[in-house]
Automatic annotation (TrEMBL):
Keywords: Hydrolase, Metal-binding
SUPFAM superfamilies registered for this protein in UniProt: Metallo-dependent hydrolases
InterPro entries: DNase_TatD-rel_CS, Metal_Hydrolase, TatD-like, TatD/YcfH-like
Protein name as it appears in the record: TatD DNase family protein
Molecular function terms, GO-annotated: DNA nuclease activity; hydrolase activity, acting on ester bonds; metal ion binding
Length: 259
């Protein structure tokens, strides 16, 4: 059984001391493909270095909405150049975050839009962060239509079924992380059961959002297996089936990832 963690922040300082051990545990759990999204220009360089150093690990480059207020001069050109790297498979993590509101909302929207256009020119999918900004995220996706180009994924999905369906209709994939395993997440599991099979992905968002029964502890990619197990139960299929489907979907979306 092969598993694909489509969102894991291995450049986070919490992995500085034991990254090799973390990756060894991932491989032992069957996790042989990992996408590591950046959050700003500096981490975009970091994730490329990590991807270059490890088989099965790939990078996404971009500016997170929490960093949208401090985009350096020339950043977009640099991101577009990095997008040509053979191990850069997406533009991300990009999006909108109205919970932290670290940058004015129009600025966040402009930064996201600029990076969607980079993704379209580069022929890469986008990785979308959405926190308390659903309508504006969907409106921007509907206007810029990245789903008509290389597509994208709504990462760490935690929304209603109608939002899921609107995102799918816009050409997006839907990825679930640790929250789908939490005891009070019955509504989210019901949504997960309704995602079209060809749009379903799994992730850890490590080091954040560790799944049950490790909630509150540092997350790591090996635990994507726990997300897969819960999705299998919610959808009434086997773990092997969820692994197969999400593996195939991950490779379909992130086309530069080696099969």
């Amino acid at each position: 059984m092969k598993l694909f963690d489509t969102h894991c922040h291995l450049m986070d300082r919490r992995f500085e001391e034991d990254l090799e051990e973390v990756l060894a545990r991932a491989r032992a759990a069957g996790v042989t493909r990992i996408v590591v999204p950046a959050v700003d220009l500096d981490t975009s360089h970091q994730v490329i270095r990590i991807a270059e150093a490890h088989d099965g690990v790939y990078a996404a480059v971009g500016i997170h909405p929490e960093a949208a207020g401090e985009v350096p001069d020339g950043a977009y050109g640099e991101i577009e150049r990095m997008a040509a790297h053979p191990k850069v498979v997406a533009i991300g993590e990009i999006g909108l975050d109205y919970y932290w509101d670290s940058a004015p909302r129009p600025v966040q929207q402009q930064v996201m839009a600029a990076q969607v256009e980079i993704a379209k020119r580069a022929g890469l999918p986008i990785i979308v962060h959405n926190r308390e900004s659903t309508e504006d995220v969907l409106d921007l996706l509907a206007r810029l239509r990245p789903g008509d180009a290389a597509g994208g994924v709504m990462h760490c999905f935690n929304e209603r079924e109608d939002v899921m369906q609107r995102a799918v209709d816009l050409g997006m994939y839907i990825s679930f992380a640790g929250p789908v395993t939490y005891k009070k997440s019955d509504d989210l599991r019901a949504v997960a059961a309704r995602v079209p099979e060809d749009r379903l992905l799994i992730e850890t968002d490590s080091p954040y959002l560790s799944p049950h029964p490790f909630r509150g502890k540092r997350n790591e990619p090996a635990r994507v297996a726990l997300v897969a197990e819960v999705l299998a139960s919610a959808r009434g299929v086997t773990m092997d089936e969820i692994a197969r489907v999400t593996w195939e979907n991950g490779h379909r979306l992130f086309r530069k990832v080696e099969a």
